[in-house]
Amino acid sequence: MKRIISLILSIVILSTLVLSVSCAEEEEVFDMDFHVDLDVTLEGLTFIWGTAWLTQFYPNEGFSLVGDNMRAHYREIEEEMGCKINIIAWEDGGRRVMQDVAAGMKTCDLVDSHATNAGIELYRAGILAPLDDIPNINGYDEKYGPLRFRQYGIFDGKLYGLYQYLWDFPPEFFGTMTFNVDMLSSFGLPLPYEYVEAGNWNWETYKSYLLSIDASARNAGYDSSFVAHTSQSFATDAISFMFMNGCKMIEKDANGNYVLGLDNSYGLAALDYLADLAREDVFAENGNDSFIKQQNAAIMTSESYYATHFQEGNEDAYLPGQPWVYGLVNYPYGPNGNENCVSAFVHKTRRLNWVNAYSGNELSDIGIFVDRLFEPIDDEGGWKASLGYSLFHDKRDFENYNKMLENVNYVYDLPLGSVYDDMKTSFSYVISGRRAAGEAFNSIRTAMDESIKKNVTWVIEDLIAE
Fold first, then answer.
1. pLDDT digits over 343-365, tens only?
2. Parallel, antiparallel or unpaired: strands 258-260 and 158-159
C-alpha cells in the first residue's frame, strides 16, 4: 500500500511542478481555541525540522542567552511529551522533501524556507498541509504571527505559513529607515525622531535634511564617496515611497475590479521625488555596507533584519553588532500621504515554516507538536523584549518598528510573477535617470492588468479598503 501511495504522490509531484498558483476567496477565520490543554503524549515520536539556517534555530551552546533559551525549550518539550526533536541542516527548497515523499521515506515535518522556494514548490506538489486542515492547532493564533504579516504564506486563498512570532526572531520586512545617531549628532543636526514628533517628517523636510547632511559631511572632511542616504534597492524604495504618498499596491476601481494602485499621479510623484534626490547626489543605491561597515552614509533604507538581527560568525554585517548608536523610523510621507502611512511591506522572498502533510507522522500529532513548539520561548516576551531592551537604543525605535509591523503592506509579488520584477526594473531606470517618470508604467501596464485579473483573485478586503 505504501508503494502505491508513493507512486501516486510521485505522479502528483511531477505533474504539479509546472502549474502556477491559483487563487481563491479568503478563508473564514473562526475565533476558537485549538490549544491542547489535556495531558498529551507523543511518546516515541521523532519530529524533524529542516532549515538552511541551522545556527539560528540551534545555535552553539553559550553563544547567547537567546540560543540557550531555545535549546532549553526543545529539551522541555522532549521531556514533557516523550518525543525527540531533530533540527537538521536542510536545503532552502522543497526538492529533497518531494524526493523523500515519493520514495516513501520519513522526512521533515516542518521546513523553514522562503515562500519562493519550499513554500510554493511543496504547495504546487500537493504536499503542504493548509493550517485549517491540521488538527489541534489554530493557525490564526498570535503565536504564529499576525495575518497581515503572513500574507505571503497564503496560496489559493488558504493559509499555509507559520512564523515563530513569540520567539526571539523579529519579523522581517522591507521599508525600514535607519540612521547613524552618532554621526548626525556630531554634525549638530536634529535626529529624524524630532521631525516625526513635530509632525513634519515629510518629503519637503526630508530633502532639506539630506542637503544639510551632505554639506555637514563635506565640512567634516568626508570625501566624494559619502552619500547622505544609501539605498539597498532603488526599486523597493520606490514602492515604499509610493505607500508613503497614499498608494496601495492593489485597490478597487469604480467597477469593483482589482487594479494596480501605484499607476497614478501619486505613484509617479514618488518616482519624480526620488529621481530628484538622486540628481542632487544625496540618494544613491550604494548598498548596506557603506552604512553599516564603512559608516560612509548617514541614513540607510533596507530590509528590517539589518537593524534587528545578528548571526553567529557574521555579526559585523548587522547593526546590533556595531559599536555606534543607530535609530529606526518610518519613511517621510508625501503630499498625498500622512503620518499614518507605512513604508514597510512583506514580499515573497521571506521565510516561513511549512508543514509537510506526508512526513511520516500523523497530522494530528504534528498539530500537537507545533502547538507546543511555537509557544513563547521565554518569560520575557521573545523578540519584543530583546528589541525593546537589548538591541534598540531608544524606545522610539521599537515603537516605530512595531507600528510598521502591525500595519505592514503586501506587494502580491508571488501571484503577479515576472511582471512585478519588470515593474521594479522600470522604477530603477526612472530613479537612475534612464527613463522619464511618465514612462514608468508604459511597458508593463497591459501585462500587469492581465496578471492582476488572472492571478490576484484573493485579497484581505479590510487591508485595501482604506
1. 999 999 899 999 999 999 999 99
2. unpaired
